Amino acid sequence: MMMTTRSKHVHVFFSMTTLIGLLLSFPESMAFVPQRSRGIPNLFRTAARIRMAADDDTSNVHQISIEYCRRCRWGLRGFWTAQELLSTFRDDDNLGAVTLIPSATPGRFAVTAKKADGKSVVLWNRDEAEGFPEMKDLKQLVRDEINPARFLGHSDSTERQEKTDPAETKDTIIDLSKEQPEPNDVNLKPKDVQDVPTPHLTISYCTGCQWLLRAAYVAQELVSTFSEEIHAVTLLPRRRPAKGGAFLVTVDGAIIWDRFEQGRFPETKELEQLVRDVLHHSKHLGHIDVKNTAAVPVEEMDDDEAAEARKFFGVM
């Protein structure tokens, strides 16, 4: 019985000692836990940024070029083709640019895809195909080259439409309660567009602002006005995470208009004058040109001449 009581006392003693130790370490634990909970997200964020920096390259970004016969007046067909491709692949980072190249070769209409490593493949050649491509066929060829897993909806093949689950094509709903990774910036810059004829015009536009039509219209106007001077024009979509509201025009890498700096869009005649000053300073632009000629001074009449003029016109 005495041994049992002593055992209880020993047990109580060790229990009290353990409790006191826990109480003494309690404030330190409380100070450590919040610090740790704050640090873990930062570690994940840092790791994500490291991965983003490692993946932030344009190795898989493709450039599409469209060569068209200039004298055949196929410019509108070329620009329409470019707009269709840029509209369909508006949110696809794998399509970084579409370049239109007026060609002196009679009957030329060719579409080529090129990766950043310089490898290129001809998707369509009118001489070999003996005609122009159907737009949905061309979209499928571009898709197969830049992003084979992408579904094109009604522009896709009948077989692929039958095999694709409509639920798989729906937009993913983002869970805002979870931290979302920042998208990689793989937008091409004007300097990234290589191996194109010069003078080379580029127009970078914000895709989120839906400025493709504006950019294409401006490009067509400039190519029409400078049909002999401009040898290539590139439309460059600017997607997230690039800053929204971009509308940048360059000629051979020199910026002639930046919407961020100017605070507005350019008038077409303004751009034509700016391009003229870079490419062909002496070129006359007709009715849209700025008249720099001095005003002709008006000669004053003396009293006798004024009286004769009033008599001639019947004004007394």
From TrEMBL:
* InterPro entries cross-referenced by the UniProt entry: Selenoprotein_Rdx-typ, Thioredoxin-like_sf
Question: What is the name attached to this protein's record?
Answer: Selenoprotein W
Family annotation (Gene3D superfamilies): Glutaredoxin (3.40.30.10)
Top-rank taxon, per record = Eukaryota
Q: Does the keyword Plastid apply?
A: no
Q: Which SUPFAM superfamilies match?
A: Thioredoxin-like
Q: Keywords of this protein's UniProt record, alphabetized?
A: Redox-active center, Signal
A Pfam family found in this protein is: Rdx
Question: Where is the signal peptide, in residue numbers?
Answer: 1-31
Origin species, per record, is Amphora coffeiformis
